[in-house]
């Protein structure tokens, strides 16, 4: 469900990363090569990017498929940035939130996207609602699983947690409450990229000291693309990429003892 991508590096047109590659995000909206769940990402799209000297990103989002927006390719041809996060969406459940439900979500300097789905949404995460201040729940940008996961992460970020810790703790918390969830998360502040591989594909391409791309799948056939192992936290900058294994909460589950037969 969904495809997403983040880039940090030298300033370049958005289209060079999103539209121009033979298997870029634009094409992945109707012909993804490595998507395990769903086949078409036509339920909205968005791109967020950073302008030089301004730490707060701009966003362009729409409710329909990226290929139906006749202005996007032209906009992407001329708008330049040294950092971006973009996504095309295949909705977990049909809803009426329109472009508000399309990633990237944003707050302050951060941009966020979720590729995957929370099993049993919304009932499976009822217990986590009480961990958030009521105002945070009431001000959620959309009423979908991705927006709620973002609210959980944002609460941790605002409390001072580092990006990697905020994503890790949220993934483990949601996975424990809703086993089987797919939680590939992608976060950037314009200088770094933090991501999780949890149930779906994730790849990265780095030119050390110059640029890093993290994406649901490679946008071309460059042999230097590296696949991120499942259950992994990725932290990256322009200069390096660090992979850290994540512990699956289901691995600690102890089978219940067999019940004694009734007499």
Describe what you observe in this structure.
There is one protein chain. Helix 6 packs across helix 7 (163-177). This protein has one domain: Glutamine Phosphoribosylpyrophosphate, subunit 1, domain 1 (4-Layer Sandwich). The chain is built from seven helices and 13 strands. The strands form two sheets. It has a seven-stranded antiparallel β-sheet with strand order 3-2-4-1-10-9-11. A six-stranded antiparallel β-sheet has the order 5-6-7-8-12-13, with helices on one face. By secondary structure, the protein is of the alpha+beta class. Helix content is 21%, strand content 29%.
Task: Give a short synopsis of this structure.
This protein is of the alpha+beta class and 263 residues long. Helix content is 21%, strand content 29%.
């Amino acid at each position: 469900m969904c495809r997403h991508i983040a880039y940090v590096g030298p300033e370049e047109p958005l289209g060079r990363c999103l539209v121009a590659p033979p298997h870029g995000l634009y094409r992945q909206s109707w012909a993804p090569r490595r998507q395990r769940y769903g086949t078409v990402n036509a339920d909205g799209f968005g791109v967020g990017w950073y302008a030089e000297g301004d730490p707060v990103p701009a966003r362009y989002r729409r409710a329909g498929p990226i290929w139906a927006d006749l202005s996007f390719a032209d906009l992407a041809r001329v708008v330049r940035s040294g950092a971006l996060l973009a996504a095309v969406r295949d909705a977990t459940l049909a809803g009426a939130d329109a472009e508000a439900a399309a990633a990237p979500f944003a707050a302050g300097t951060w941009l966020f996207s979720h590729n995957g789905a929370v099993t049993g949404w919304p009932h499976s995460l009822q217990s986590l609602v009480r961990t958030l201040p009521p105002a945070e729940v009431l001000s959620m940008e959309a009423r979908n699983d991705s927006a709620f996961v973002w609210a959980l992460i944002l609460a941790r970020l605002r409390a001072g947690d580092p990006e990697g810790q905020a994503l890790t703790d949220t993934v483990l918390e949601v996975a424990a409450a809703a086993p089987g969830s797919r939680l590939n998360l992608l976060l950037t502040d314009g200088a770094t990229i933090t991501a999780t591989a949890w149930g779906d594909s994730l790849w990265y391409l780095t030119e050390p000291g110059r640029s890093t791309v993290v994406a649901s799948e490679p946008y071309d056939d460059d042999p230097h693309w590296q696949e991120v192992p499942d259950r992994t936290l990725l932290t990256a900058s322009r200069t390096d990429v660090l992979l850290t294994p994540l512990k699956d909460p289901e691995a600690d589950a102890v089978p219940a003892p067999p019940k004694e037969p009734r007499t």
